[in-house]
Amino acid sequence: MGTSTAYGGPGGGTPLVPSWLGDADGGSPPASPAAGDEPDGDGVAPGDGAAPPPAPNRPAIPAVADPQRFSGARNSFTRFAGSGGTDRASLGRAVSRYVSTSAGGARQAAQRMGASRGSGARLLGFLADAQARGVREALRSLDLESLAGRPITEVFVGLADYICPGAGTVDEGIAREAYIETIIELTTEGLTDLSTFTPDQMQTVFELYATHAIEARICNDIGTKAVTMPTDAQAAHRVEAQLRDFIRGGVSDALTRARAESPNLTPERIQSFVDTVYESAFAILQSLGQAEADL
User: Fold this and answer.
1) Do the Cβ atoms of 83 and 273 come closer than 8 Å?
2) What is each CA distance from 116 to 65, 82, 180, 280, in whole angstroms?
3) pLDDT in tens, 205-257
């Protein structure tokens, strides 16, 4: 929520993972048709009558998803918001239904975080480089050495176009919004000196970023215009805070697990580490949400 600009959420027929989103590595090109299977003049492959494969360099059109898949999560979140943040069962049900039904499971939910996964990897990569070689050298490698010695918020603002390139799509907008929200929270978390960051402080920065990214993704997918927030400012703040804290708990658990499995994070493994954290976080959120709903 935060500084986000509300939009009505995706249409019910929007594919679970849009074709333009892709994976962080860009995906693999479609295979060329085997010899003898080229389509005839009508575009139909000869032989057993099966549909021809997608044309080279043209992504397959994703199947249309269930048009009602967002309704359960929206209804539950509306009940939670209407309670002013007291109906924890509806919060849990909303998040659990979002992952399991709206997004199609933890793996597909993570895939929907396309730009945020890439931005998260760049953020974590920069922090690791700054810790290994020093802030000045890490900034110099990005032609941003002039930021060395500046307050941490100025450094992070200066890194914005590197961490979050582009903001033309909703997905890219979510990534940039999450990064801005992270910058705002740096000082409140006691993160003021980038040159003395510990591994735990690096985790905190990435935890903040992933939390804001997932929150923005859920709110945009559910459709903030379709959810009526309390008119009382304190109640509305309580709703936002509880949703964010709930998501952060899942992200924190996912990060702890990932760090235990990959204690030595090399530059080559950062993207896969980030992808694992997002998928694990959604799986944990689904389980935590269901547990809240069952109380």
Assistant:
1) no
2) 23, 30, 13, 15
3) 999 999 999 999 999 988 655 566 777 888 889 999 999 999 999 999 999 99
Q: Which two tokens stand for residue 43?
A: 């575009």
Closest to 159 (Cα-Cα) out of 187, 191, 200, 194: 194
pLDDT tens, 40-92? 444 444 444 555 555 556 555 555 556 677 889 999 999 999 999 899 999 99
DSSP code at position 195:
G
- The sign one gets for the Cα dihedral 199, 205, 209, 210 is positive
Residue with the two structure tokens 């509305």: 236
| Rounded (5°) CA angle 116-119-121 | 110
Burial class of 69 by CB neighbour count within 10 A (0 to 12, 13 to 18, 19+): buried
| Domain residue limits, the chain | 71-294
